Amino acid sequence: MADLAVDIGGIKSPNPFWLASAPPTNTGDQVARAFDAGWGGAVWKTIGEPVENTFSRYSSVDLDGKRMMGFNNIELITDRPLATNLAEIEAVKSRYPDNALVVSLMVESSQEAWHRIVRQAEDAGADGLELNFGCPHGMSERGMGAAIGQVPEYCQNIVVWVKEVATKPVLVKLTPNVADIVPPARAAKAGGADGISLINTINSVTGVDLDTFAPRPTVAGESSHGGYCGPAVKPIALHMLSAIARDAEAGDVPLSGIGGVATWQDAAEFILLGATTVQVCTAVMHWGYRIVEGMIDGLSGYLDSKGMASVNELRGKSVDRLKKWENLDLNYVIKAKVDQEACIGCGLCYIACNDGAHQAIGAERNGDRTKVWIIEDACVGCNLCSLVCPVSGCITMEQRDTDHDSINWIEYGEGKGTIEPRPKHGVTITAD
Ligand SMILES: Cc1cc2nc3c(=O)[nH]c(=O)nc-3n(C[C@H](O)[C@H](O)[C@H](O)COP(=O)(O)O)c2cc1C
């Protein structure tokens, strides 16, 4: 079995699977049960000055019967007394010496307040600290959370204050609510961060009740924008993580990937794009701690199948495969192919291609079935038909040989190469 142990900026963990700072890490009893279930690490629900939470605080977006495809919350940091949290952190750490116990922190922007909370968390036995520069609601209105993560200079200043007293590794958790994630990442590094965690939640309004006109989640008929997370945000998280991993200045900082992780496959994708650990919130709020069993087994089996002895061998293997668009190979040609045996004749690929793409599918109605075929010359290989097809593997994309040497957009612009004539649009299909 492949070795899953990792070390992120000096924090050791028996596996890369951590709970994110959120309701699943609210209490000592919960974190203990999570460690018993197999989680390698946990980031404690953010501690700081006590707050009061609203009662109604979560809402979600369902998609075709799939519950909580996107999840939204207007919850603040912990509303439990600081002393209670610190006592429970100490108790859990002494019982689970081999698990990574990181404490998430957020206080007002004063050097003294940050020094105090860092010392308190370390005295309680934290293996590391995570600075919450990402909470997008409530706390940010008071100059904390995302209000820090959105201004690289503030980010750097606070990391410097923290590093003045911290003896344990410091992770900085970034907000995705920025135009470009790289400047705050560079600032965190410049301040001395030992690692970067991302993403926190994305500003969102999940919907409005059409009878009452009240946005969700409804607090006495009103609402506030919240933070979006869960499966819907994974692509955004992967993009932001990889943007940092690819950056020449910040790319060597260890990364903890967060956002929509629910399976070992999700975790493997984050690791391939540079993450050392992954953190999970929504999937555990949905399915409970035991999902980690499948994640551990699945990742181990996957590494074995790739001939890798350690998860560390997987890390970053896809980072260089993400390039600027202008560097992509313009002579790479693929065309759609329909497996007529597998086709159920629904005609969806024809409609999608005809109305929404490149008019490259021919169709003929035959009773209650639609026979489809690819018009090779018109097909630009955009993938849409294979994406809408309800039958897995029925429409595949096949590579075609081209006579040209590979060129990219820059070279093409400079007249250094030629590209096959592009297909003609507006092909008219008549069924005979
Ligand atoms: C209800 C709720 C409360 C959260 N509270 C915190 C928090 O206190 N501190 C923090 O850093 N992130 C907090 N988060 C953000 C999560 O740690 C995580 O970054 C985000 O949910 C994305 O991961 P996911 O898609 O696995 O949920 C919270 C998320 C949710 C849903």
- Taking pLDDT < 50 over at least 5 consecutive residues as the criterion, the unreliable ranges are 425-432
Instruction: Give the amount of beta strand, in percent.
Output: 15-25%
At the first level of CATH, what is the class of the largest domain?
Alpha Beta
Bound molecules: flavin mononucleotide
Q: Round the mean pLDDT to the nearest integer and report it.
A: 94
User: What does the main sheet amount to?
Assistant: 8 strands, parallel, barrel
CATH architecture of the largest domain: Alpha-Beta Barrel
> Radius of gyration in whole Å, from Cα?
25 Å
What percent of residues adopt helix (DSSP H or I)? 25-40%
Number of strands: 18
Q: What is the domain tally?
A: 2
Shape: globular
CATH homolog superfamily of the largest domain = Aldolase class I
- What class would the helix/strand composition place it in? alpha/beta
| CATH fold-level assignment of the largest domain | TIM Barrel
Total of DSSP H or I helical runs spanning 4+ residues: 13
Strand line-up in the sheet with most strands: 3-4-7-8-9-10-13-14
